[in-house]
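Q: Convert this sequence to structure tokens.
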Amino acid sequence: MMDHPTVPAGVATPATARVGDPVLLNDLGAASKPPGTLTYFAGDIYRLSGAVIPFDSGGPIVDERTGEALGLVSRGLNCQAPSLLCAEYEGPTVQDAMALAQAKGFLLDLRTAGGD
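A:
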């Protein structure tokens, strides 16, 4: 991740991520964003509040406390037109995104910042 070369350090699970944890958001080369907050994480979906914009779609979400990847920015909730800023965002967890891709025949190799 831009400005965070040591993450992700692994993959978050509901056992390691906690509601209320600060989350790092991909800044896509722009100025660093303040951390968001994890508001829900279970099974195959996460939800967060934070400074995400529509152009962040597909970018990583990382638990700042553990350094582990939570998932991908996917969809906004409670969005306000015309700014497209949303109160919350949710998306697939890393495990769910990988399982869906593998079910479609994609070969995947998960790599972390530490080279795992």
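Residues 42 and 101 are 20 Å apart (CA to CA).
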